[in-house]
Specification:
This protein is an alpha+beta fold and 144 residues long. It has one domain: Nuclear Transport Factor 2, Chain: A. It is built from six helices and six strands; from the N terminus they run αααββαββββαα. Strands 2-1-6-5-4-3 form a six-stranded mixed beta sheet. The protein is globular, with a radius of gyration of 16 Å.
C-alpha cells in the first residue's frame, strides 16, 4: 500500500466530514465500491450520498478525529471519533441543539488510490440516545 493510499482514511474524514465536501466523495470512493453498514449495502458515491446528506442536514460543527490507522496489504483500518451539534431534522428528529459524541471503526479495501469496499461500525444507538436524551445511565440506575 502506498503512503497516499494509507492516508486515504485520514483524508476521507477530513474532506468529507470535517469540511463537508460532497464532491470529495467520488474523488476517494470508486463508482463500483460496495459499502457495508448496519446490515445494508450501498454502491458507489450515489449509494453513499443519502447518508452524507442526512448527516449534513442533521449536524453542524462536525469534527471527526482519526485516532489510529492500521494498514496491511490492501486493507486500511481507521479508528475515529465524531463530535457534532444536532442542529436539523436530517435524522427524522427535530433539532435539539445537543452536542453528541460517537466513536467508530471503518475498514477500507483500497485499489488504484480509491476505496473499493468498506465496512463501517459506529455507535448509532449511542448517537440517537444522546439526541433524544435517553442516557444509557438511566438503564443502569433502573437496574440497581
Amino acid at each position: 500500500m502506498t503512503e497516499e493510499e494509507r492516508d486515504l482514511g485520514k483524508r476521507w474524514f477530513e474532506e468529507v466530514w470535517n469540511r463537508g465536501r460532497r464532491d470529495a466523495i467520488p474523488e476517494m470512493l470508486a463508482p463500483h465500491a460496495v459499502l457495508h453498514e448496519a446490515g445494508q449495502d450501498s454502491v458507489g458515491p450515489d449509494g453513499f450520498y443519502p447518508l452524507f446528506d442526512r448527516m449534513q442536514a442533521a449536524m453542524e460543527e462536525i469534527q471527526t478525529t482519526v485516532h489510529d490507522t492500521i494498514a496491511e496489504d490492501d486493507r486500511l483500518c481507521v479508528r475515529w471519533s465524531f463530535r457534532a451539534k444536532h442542529a436539523g431534522p436530517g435524522l427524522g428528529i427535530a433539532a435539539t441543539g445537543k452536542t453528541i459524541h460517537v466513536t467508530g471503526i471503518t475498514i477500507m479495501r483500497i485499489a488504484d488510490g480509491k476505496a473499493v469496499e468498506g465496512w463501517q461500525n459506529w455507535d448509532m444507538l449511542g448517537m440517537m440516545e444522546q439526541i433524544r436524551g435517553t442516557a444509557r445511565a438511566a438503564t443502569y440506575v433502573a437496574a440497581s
